[in-house]
Amino acid sequence: MVISVDAYLLDVSAEKLIINVKKSIFEYIRNMLSKKTKYGIKALAFIAKKSDRKPVQTSEISKSENISQKFLESILLELRKSGFLGSKKGKGGGYYLIKEPESILMTAVIRVLEGPIAMVPCVSLNYYEKCDDCPSEETCSVHSLMIQVRDSTLKVLGDNTLADISAKK
Fold first, then answer.
1. Domain of 10?
2. 69-81 and 35-49 are packed helices; what angle lies between their axes, rounded to 10 degrees?
3. Average pLDDT over residues 78-107
4. Are residues 62 and 19 in the same domain?
5. Are both 17 and 74 inside the same structural domain?
6. What's the rounded Cα separation, in Å, for the pair 22 and 158?
7. Whether residue 14 is found in the same domain as residue 42
8. Same structural domain, 6 and 86
9. Are residues 50 and 121 in the same domain?
10. pLDDT in tens, 60-74
11. Which DSSP category does 51 fall into?
12. Reduced to 3 states, what is the DSSP secondary structure of residue 121?
């Protein structure tokens, strides 16, 4: 009986550790994001929270999320060109999601707005470049560390959809 209780406590502790690691990685990522990406995610989440799925005006998002309307317009245009949003002009116009929030992975949003997810180009899966100052990636301690950071970041972002983040308060 004590063994199963200890095993249960170990499972709970491991679960708490995983949750704390996820939170730490998410905080780290959040602090590394450009304002453009942060505002783009906030705008997408705002649009996703609208249950009626009607177009949302830029001014409404701007006011609610405290984002410069001019800057927001350029971000929303980029998200529209990338296939996340549609737009309607005129009365009742604005931006709306083209896909369901459950199908929009945060990895895709980050890549569109921010570019590579990897912190250094020598570990990027999509934008690989060899480092000029590194004689060997196999023996480079920075390279191996950045692979772990990349993989952890991809895991957290890949496990979160627009539906997940827009459900949070």
1. 1-32
2. 80
3. 94
4. no
5. no
6. 12
7. no
8. no
9. yes
10. 999 999 999 999 999
11. T
12. helix
The pTM score is 0.75
Same domain? 76 vs 98: yes
Domains held by the chain: number = 2
Token duo for residue 128 = 């690989």
pLDDT band, residue 50 (cuts 50/70/90):
confident
DSSP secondary structure, 63-125, as one string: HHHT--HHHHHHHHHHHHHTTSEEEE-STT-EEEESS-GGG-BHHHHHHHHT--SSSSGGG-S
Q: Within 13 Å and on the Cβ side, how many CA atoms surround 90?
A: 0
Q: CA separation (Å) from 72 to 32, 119, 145?
A: 19, 25, 35
Per-residue confidence band for 6, with pLDDT thresholds at 50, 70 and 90: very low
Read off the pLDDT of residues 110-149 as tens digits, 9 standing for 90 and up: 999 998 888 888 888 888 888 888 788 887 878 888 888 8
12, 13, 14, 15: CA torsion to nearest 10 = 50
